[in-house]
Here is the input.
Amino acid sequence: MQFKITEKIKNLEIDDIKENLLHYSYDSKTLKYLVKNNISKDDISYVTAYSSFVGEIYENIIYELLLKYALENKDIKSFVLKGPYQAKENHFIKSGLLIDRSSQIVYKSAYKDISEFDALFFTEDSVYFVEMSTSKKTASLNKRLAKKYALLKIIFPSLEIKALIVLTKGSTGTKNFPEYSTIWLTNDLNDDDLIEKIIFAKKVKNELQTLKAPEDKKFIEAYSIKYKKFPYFPTLEWILNISRKHPKFEVDLKFFSTPKMFLYFDIYTKLYIGYINSKDFKELFNDFCYIVKEDKIIVTLEKINQSEIDVVYYVKETNEKLQRVRLCGNDEVSIKEKEPDGFTNAEVRFFMKVLDDTHRLSVDNIKHILKNISIIK
Here is the structure.
């Protein structure tokens, strides 16, 4: 099913929803500061902040227009409320599909966002996730779709997963999106009066979430959706354990070639297969000089891009810094420090407790994996 854009959405006809836009939450602090300090509109800091802010307004405009579109379209059976329309934020729910503190639709695990959806709606046999962007370059957005698609495929296994991508005219790469995507192109948002009004709108505490959704049973709260739970860390541990059960090989590479495993690669990017100690690792990387916590250099199979999977190592130093190390061949090494509050650090902390002597990999094991990694395709 292909949903068709209406003239109202295409032309951003918003006279009847302008007041509604004031009820959304915006991050205007940076832009207000720049305006009050008479920073030139040509300054890169102003251009960046303004572009980001216009993107926030655009997202809310499209959501408002989609709300009306859903009400009138009989094929849309349910539409998830967010922003000023949803009844409550699920601040204290640790995991699952919910509304976060920013009033966005997210899937969380251990209080961390796995994915965010600009809008979400259901037909008889499908779930559509919506992505909106004012950026004319779409490669980054396109890349992010794989994770969202994979996550929804796992939590809604009986439904088709589709995407509605809403962009502005002149966007590049619109033909590069996956086949499950429907592309809508709208006019640019050029309503300077509206943008300025929202930037400087005075917000009274607890005033925001006050809009009432149209009275129709198709408008639903995120917490009411039935889906298959996705246990983030237990699934990673299950993958590790199954991959190490082959009677002949230390790591069962064929296990990673199944369609379900490719969904997991899209969600996690990397899947954990064991660890190697510092002494052995120096045979692979002569200049290795880090002091490693518990002498465990964690080994992963990592999705480098859509067509390449490689062995990548994670080094937890005794000072708690985490380094991503990739041996790229021809003596080329890529080393990057990971954010301390990111998912990778959380995953490594988890596996430092899980990995024991049975998960140790030798240099020969690593070489065998590298020689046969093309099995994963």
Notes: The longest helix spans residues 44-72. The two ends are 30 Å apart (CA to CA).
